[in-house]
Amino acid sequence: MNEIDSATVTAVLTRFIADAVAKTGHRGAILGVSGGLDSAVVLALAARALGPAGVTALLLPYRMSAPESARHGRNLCQQLGVECHEIDISPQIDAYFARFPAEPRMLLGNKCARERMSILYDHSVRRQALVIGTSNKSELLVGYSTLFGDSAAAIQPIGDLYKTQVFSLALHLGIPAEIIAKQPSADLWPGQTDEGELGITYRELDEILFQLVDRRLSPAQVVALLDLPAERVARVRQRIVRSQYKRTMPPVAKLSNRTVGLDFRYLRDLAR
What we know:
Layout: H1 6-23, E1 28-32, H2 37-50, E2 55-59, H3 67-80, E3 83-86, H4 90-99, H5 105-127, E4 129-131, H6 137-142, H7 163-173, H8 177-181, H9 194-198, H10 202-214, H11 219-226, H12 230-242
Parallel strand pairs: 1-2, 1-4, 2-3
């Protein structure tokens, strides 16, 4: 996979964030900060793009979140000079599951993700701030996100960077070593890691995705090139296909001459 020019990527993404906020008429930006790598990188980019005063960070822990996650998030906000507020989502999450008990842990993760985004959009209106997402290309391609949760942001600055490329950008941006060094995790329950849930390391996943998506190689070609089990490559491709619905707007059944999303389109830049 190609190495990124971190300085150029930083310049492009800071301009992207600044333009999006200006063109939509918002006063600033708001995002959820988890103490993890992706949100740390996006927070640093947003602070560069809008100035620290133009960014608000929300820490939204659940009672099972690791204590160091909030600490890492607070420390980064202090380092960048960004206003930070902490809101514990445990009361509303626990109240819901007390009424509607569920065994699969995935349901808890999805509920937490949607509750966090709901709070972010509430504060977005209060502050007239654009909600910035923190999903990377690896997560988006395999559907490792919650629909109308972490995937619901207005813009996704690092959505075209693979996870391994985000690590490179983090080093360039001076993200604290304690954040870069820890295992990627959605912090849904003790010991949970992204790679554990995905069943593959990000390094191997990104290489497979790069060959399938960016180079448009067939699964058979990827197997031969990377000397990997065919079943592993097929499983990644299957995740891409099955999660396509998460990467598109809800389809509208066409009944008229001009249908929203099909024939009725305006450039985002003309919204104002």
